[in-house]
Specification:
Layout (H helix, E strand, L loop, with lengths): L2 E3 L6 E3 L6 E2 L1 H8 L3 H11 L4 E3 L2 E5 H12 L1
Antiparallel strand pairs: 1-2, 3-5, 4-5
Helix pairs in contact: 1-2
Length: 72
């Protein structure tokens, strides 16, 4: 099974990822951009977001798919 190195945790994430919800700050850290950039650009990048109350969250598997599709 193919795996990806996960900078955020320093561990390995299997291809496909998990349903774990990430904050915009965690996504920003992973993509090495600012949190404001994630909040302003996620739609333009085609990232799917989940609303938990008023909070914005991203599924880990969607971030992995985005990276594979655009930079893989």
């Amino acid at each position: 099974m193919e795996s990806l190195f996960c900078c955020r945790t320093g561990g390995v994430v299997t291809a496909g990822g998990s349903n774990r919800l990430l904050t915009p700050g965690e996504v920003a850290s992973w993509l090495q951009v600012s949190e404001i950039t994630v909040k302003n650009k996620y739609r333009a990048w085609g990232l799917k977001a989940q609303k938990v109350g008023r909070l914005l969250r991203f599924r880990e598997r969607d971030i992995i798919a985005y990276l594979e599709d655009n930079y893989g």
